[in-house]
Amino acid sequence: MTKFTDLNLAPKVLKAIEDVGYETPTPIQAGAIPPALEGRDVLGIAQTGTGKTASFVLPMITMLARGRARARMPRSLVLCPTRELAAQVAENFDQYTKYMKLTKALLIGGVSFKEQDALIDKGVDVLIATPGRLLDHFERGKLILSDVKVMVVDEADRMLDMGFIPDIERIFGLTPFTRQTLFFSATMAPEIERITNTFLSAPAKIEVARQATSGENIEQYVVMFKGSRRDRAASEKRKLLRALIDAEGDKLQNGIIFCNRKTDVDIVSKSLNKYGYQASPIHGDLDQSQRNATLEKFRNGEIKILVASDVAARGLDVASITHVFNFDVPSHAEDYVHRIGRTGRAGRDGKAIMICEPRDEKNFADVEALIAKEIPRLENPLGNAPVEEETEVKSDKPKRSRSRKRKTEDAPQVEPQAETQVEALPREESRKSEPKSDSHSRRGRGRKEDDNKVVGLGDHLPSFIALSFEERQAG
Ligand code: AMP
């Protein structure tokens, strides 16, 4: 078996790897590092979770250890599709260069131009960027790319999905023809193939198998969920999540809840806390020290539930996570495998429960296709939402939901300002608060004209009758 010491990495890099605790190189590392260190182009077909970040960062920093950066002329460039990924690469870079004097700048949204410009002016060894932001800097004349010796394109297939390929082509054109290119993609779509044929020169091609499809020791379930009404779906989904957590009882010792969106990470976490569950959010927008503190608390058991985005949970290595909840079906099927792989580690048993809404069905089909098995359906512990409510929504009462929204959930310790989104009342509660009368029961404003009808008087309602209604209602 290949060892890190077989790979010709700089001694200071090896020392940092030892500190991080990696014992052996992963297949993509064992395959990509040697040709990269020989100065060859590399085409790595690998997805996240395979250790691909280190497979380009480690040889890059070994090569950069020789030589120095010149003002405004970065020596290497890493392009990532999202700022979360770029931040993750930057984090890895910091870890692996802890015994070296290499500098980096991070060009992503949310990081000030001014500070990064100052770094670039001084000269950086590595520029880690999203394509758009890099081009912004370039166009402002702050950046010269003619000294780039190594260019990395990470997650090219996501770049394609996000429409960044023209930017990538342009950036390729701005860097010297003689640069070395390390190019990574999980899949080889025809467009990706075209780019690699155009811009890579006789690359060493390393393809690593998809991560083992979902572990046999992980029990997997899915709950099909449809909100009773559009404006209630979000809070009903959170209620369902709580019910799923409750149903696990003491078996749930610690768990991660994955959400597709960062906003949901925050909302779900706040909502859980409001209901007395100990949860903390973790996503790419939180600063590193906050994330580290949260992870530490999760590791030592102070926090039982982590609500996370995919990127933030990467690199989270806790051996004994009992449960993974997928609040959403991930939009990339591979992420499902990574997510549930957080539990059931080191031969332990784990449980993964996912909520699937009608809009997730396509993604759900992709997940089942990827893992090549059917995920057992779990009954909704709350039962299925009654359909009558839905029919009612479709009737002409656009303001009904407004009056409910003003109220908060029947939480034990209601802290309205703690919730970024005011939640609807649970159904039983809202029924109680509704007057028994019908459509013209509340408020004059926003009512459909039909609401003014009084049975027996047809369309020509004398105005004094309408007036008396308004007054009575207001009282
Ligand atoms: P990546 O595919 O780069 O997103 O890496 C996935 C995870 O694997 C990260 O948490 C890394 O810290 C971890 N990792 C990378 N290389 C190794 C290794 N050789 N041994 C163990 N873990 C690793």
CATH third-level topology of the largest domain: Rossmann fold
Outline type: globular
CATH architecture grouping of the largest domain: 3-Layer(aba) Sandwich
Counted by DSSP, the helix tally is 19
CATH superfamily of the largest domain: P-loop containing nucleotide triphosphate hydrolases
* Tally of distinct domains: 3
Distance between the termini: 82 Å
Which kinds of small molecule does this entry bind, naming each only once? adenosine monophosphate
The amount of beta strand, in percent, is 5-15%
Sheet bearing the most strands, described?
7 strands, parallel
Query: How do the strands line up in the largest sheet?
Result: 3-4-2-5-6-1-7
Total DSSP E strands? 13
- Structural category is alpha/beta
Work out the radius of gyration.
27 Å
Broad CATH class of the largest domain: Alpha Beta
Helix share, percent: 40-55%
Mean pLDDT: 79
Q: Runs with pLDDT <50, length 5+?
A: 386-462, 464-475
